[in-house]
Design goal:
about 240 residues, alpha/beta, Rossmann fold, four-stranded parallel β-sheet, about 35% helix
Length: about 240
């Protein structure tokens, strides 16, 4: 229920669309025009990695895998899901959060991530873990966008967040500067588990803003796997879908 002070506040500072700034009715939302620009990832998609299928010629079976997942007999994570396509509009929202101090956008992105991860929640999650930044980059940026998303998801699900057990102990170049195998080499061995007891026997959910090639998330999963978790899943706000 909206309180009287909220009504008064809205008279002077009405809620505005997170993208275009148009006055709207609800906090942490988009106007209708901007919302219609969003490209949500929906079924049919690979049942393991979540990448959408473009044309399946009818309803696919429940256990369909993409070609890459079908070849990978020893995946580093159980399920991977994302809310949005990392297209022009989705990219604008992510960049605003990541580089332009729009930290309040984490709430609306997390609100879309929660239903996108329905398959993961159904399997069960014990602890949420954001992909960590190296401390030098954290000092420069002032915040970790993945940690902000994890915090919002924790508030929605009552699942605790573990911020310090997984660390990025080696400084790496930004992944956006590279592609393909160079991305994998750039983050290889960059993460380690500082407190393995935090993950042992737990169902771990890794959180990040964007999944491009998956190199960073796989390196995080490899590090966490050394602590013998029960499972590792991945949930991101957006992903590149080729």
């Amino acid at each position: 229920m909206r309180t009287w002070w909220k009504y008064i506040l809205d008279l002077f500072l009405p809620p505005r669309c997170k993208k275009c700034g148009k006055i709207i009715c609800d906090d942490d939302a988009l106007c209708d025009d901007c919302f219609n620009e969003l490209n949500f990832i929906s079924a049919p998609y690979c049942q393991r990695c979540g990448i959408p299928f473009e044309d399946v010629g009818g309803k696919p079976p429940h256990n369909w895998l993409c070609a890459e997942c079908a070849r990978d007999k020893h995946p580093w994570f159980r399920l991977c899901r994302s809310a949005l396509h990392y297209d022009e509009f989705g990219k604008a929202l992510i960049i605003a959060l990541k580089f332009y101090d729009r930290t309040d956008d984490a709430r609306i992105l997390a609100k879309w991530m929660k239903p996108a991860g329905k398959d993961i929640w159904a399997q069960g999650v014990d602890v949420i873990v954001p992909v960590p930044l190296h401390y030098t980059r954290l000092i420069k940026r002032k915040y970790n966008q993945a940690a902000l998303l994890a915090k919002e998801l924790s508030a929605m699900t009552s699942i605790p967040v573990e911020y310090s057990a997984l660390i990025r102990h080696r400084r790496t170049r930004p992944q956006v500067e590279f592609s393909g195998s160079i991305r994998r080499r750039n983050v290889r061995g960059a993460f380690k588990v500082k407190h393995p007891e935090k993950f042992r026997g737990k169902r771990v959910l890794l959180i990040d803003d964007v999944m491009t090639t998956g190199s960073t998330l796989k390196e995080c999963a490899k590090a966490i796997n050394s602590a013998h978790p029960l499972s590792i899943d991945v949930l991101t706000a957006a992903r590149v879908c080729r």
